[in-house]
Amino acid sequence: MSRYVHVLTPGDHYSPRTGSAVPTVVHGLNAATASPPAVVVARGTYADRYDDAEAIEYTPAPGPGRWERRLDAVRAPLGLPRAARRTWAAALAGQDSWEPATVVLHNAPQAVALVHAQHQPVLYAHNDLLRTYTRREAGRALGEVSAIVCVSDHLAERTTARLPHSLRERVHVVRNGVDTDLFRPGPGFPDRVQELRIVFVGRTIPDKGPAVLLDAVETLDRDDVHVTVVGSAGFSATDPLTPYERRLRATAGRLGGRATVRPFVPRTEVPGLLASADVVVVPSVWPDPCPLTVLEGMAAGAALVASDVGGIPETVADAGTLVAPGDTAALASALGHLADDPVALATARRKARSHAEARDWSVVASELAAVLEPARRTP
């Protein structure tokens, strides 16, 4: 088995200080991988890195500007690479000094053609990366890829539709996992103490739907329900509030003591926040491919209520409650049922924890190895 070298998005941090999904997934996989992996990370990113992989640093190149990105619409039909390839070239500049490796390129279709012949290039898709690609351009960019790993069936279907037929058999699904030792139920699990404690953790942007959750709690209008929303538009607690975040705080203000809104917290604080919840809500209104908070909330012993959209239903399976995205009344009804029925709540919490235990990162790492080993090219 060749060594895994994970290449992060240029500028992303391999650190518990960030809440970004890609480094969290890479950290989960690396911690469960037997052979010592490596992570290619830009010099100047957070120095307090996860210690489960060798950090291969490089000097980043400037990212494409707005006009360069607009010119991609002209480059693509001419068969020219997109402007983003320059930044990926910087990340891969030192690859000739690496031992032959499986180079796992996260969200980087433009980087596949830059991987040298001694390595195995793998595209790991966490999002819908090819939505602006024609099949012809996708074929040119990904022709040498050993495998394309998608984090959900939903994402795999969207990705496959953009590929030429010659590449479609290289698409595989490896859903995200969770650290079931780090994310664990809190004291008193699975019984509710007094008020129903509802928690949202994530980016406070419209796509993630925290306003839908606050509106649902306002609709419920119950003194025995408390909601906590934790997050910022980006990954910094000190950024100025966006208009959307100001709206969230206005709604929370109307709820008085029944709502708390907090800015972004470091990754190390998330397990405790989720362990304090009776219910974790993932109210996305966009086709979220495989949000980590679903399994993290379940592993922490919370009942899970989430939007029936994107890859969320397959992540939840039958271990949580699904509601239509953006449907405030349906979300309020689901939360009201759990507030009214302590037996149903306790059952839902046990079922959620059991479901999460089956997706520990050790399971996911084994699934990834099973996909990538047969996909290796013959030298």
From TrEMBL:
InterPro entries: Glyco_trans_4-like_N (IPR028098). The keyword Cytoplasm does not apply. Keywords: Glycosyltransferase, Transferase. Residues 40-181 form the Glycosyltransferase subfamily 4-like N-terminal domain. PANTHER family: BLL3647 PROTEIN, GLYCOSYLTRANSFERASE. This is Glycosyltransferase involved in cell wall biosynthesis.
